[in-house]
Amino acid sequence: MSKTFDFPYTMMGSTCPSCGAARESIDGRSLRAARSACGVSLRELARRIGLSAAYLSDVERNKRNVTPMLLGLYRRWLV
Fold first, then answer.
1. Cα→Cα distances 26→30, 64, 69, Å
2. CA 52, CA 54: separation in Å to the nearest integer?
3. What is the mean pLDDT of residues 7-31?
């Protein structure tokens, strides 16, 4: 059974819908930590999401930006 990882609600510059507190930005290291905590390999997540492992690796190494869409995909598949 996989662990779930609690991502912050939103991306940089946004606030929590319930308390209004500012949330820190999500970077690639946060996504890698979440994926590792769930016990999912990079290749397996790439297969689930439908993107290349090379692309996800670049995101997790902060060579590409984390987009809201990609964050949503990580949240969906890391359960």
1. 6, 12, 12
2. 5
3. 57
